[in-house]
Amino acid sequence: MALLRTVLSGILITATFCVVSATSAHADPIRIEHERGTLELPGPAKRVATINWAFTETVIALGLDPVAVADPVDYVEWVEEPALPDEFVDLGQRSSPNLEALRAAKPDLIITIPDIGINYEKLSEIAPVLQLRMFEENRPAFQAAREVFDKIAKATGREAEGAAYLADVDAKLADYGARTRAALGPDQQLNIIYFFDESTIGMFGDTSLPGSVMAAMNVPMAFHGEVNKWGFARGGLELIAPYAKQSVVYTNPVPDAILNKMFASPMWKFMDFTRNNRVYELPVVWMYGGVPSSLRFAKLLTESIENGPHQ
Fold this sequence. Notes:
Blueprint: H1 2-27, E1 30-34, E2 37-41, E3 48-50, H2 53-61, E4 68-69, H3 72-78, E5 89-90, H4 99-104, E6 109-112, H5 120-124, E7 129-131, H6 141-155, H7 159-184, E8 190-195, E9 201-204, H8 209-217, E10 232-235, E11 247-252, H9 256-264, H10 266-270, H11 272-275, E12 279-284, H12 291-307
Parallel strand pairs: 3-4, 3-6, 4-5, 6-7, 8-11, 11-12
Antiparallel strand pairs: 1-2, 8-9, 9-10
């Protein structure tokens, strides 16, 4: 009997230790550095609200449906992929999300940017807030997107999925880069532009999302001038004139009325890239997004160059 009691006592102590250890491991908080210091979560976030499209697409890419999304209608037009889930709470505008709708969504994490109109403290009354910066001076946007991706993966307990996704992105960027260089030829560089109106363009530079993704693809960019914190310079067609011997890729969405007026202008017609048929059209892709938009840009850029110039 004494031997039996000793054995049972040992089993009980071992079992108790395992339960305590498992409980302790499960209870370890998640700590993430963000714009407000260190955010501590009791465990992985399951109900995430996003007040920025880059965060929305990142959460979806990690395999988690956000419970609340800001500006979902415009997301469909400007971001397009990854597709939004079938069900979520519409928070209204990104600059001023509906707090009552946000509260009703019952999030356990809100992800937002620092320069949003709504007060950080008001958001914090609803749920823990992860405040992440996407764009700042002289910081390559793709680098920032990767850092944001890692932090959201950590906050949602999906670090393994996040690492696998980024490894796949790196492999695909290498492939897309090789294909783009082969289709473009050895003597051409790319100007990535957006039409604001019939007389104003934006030219993306090195720190922009397309510029920093192209650097990762080892695809040459023509424009290396001064840009704003979002990575582009804005001006008239004279902005692109010094780079007219290179190729041009214009991004969407752009209203047909603006395109028609721009393409009909004498200055556009005079440019070397127009006269020598080196203008390419890019389908809709969000140029201020996260890693999913970065991958989508690389894919669509490659396919556009391979498919040939815009007619």
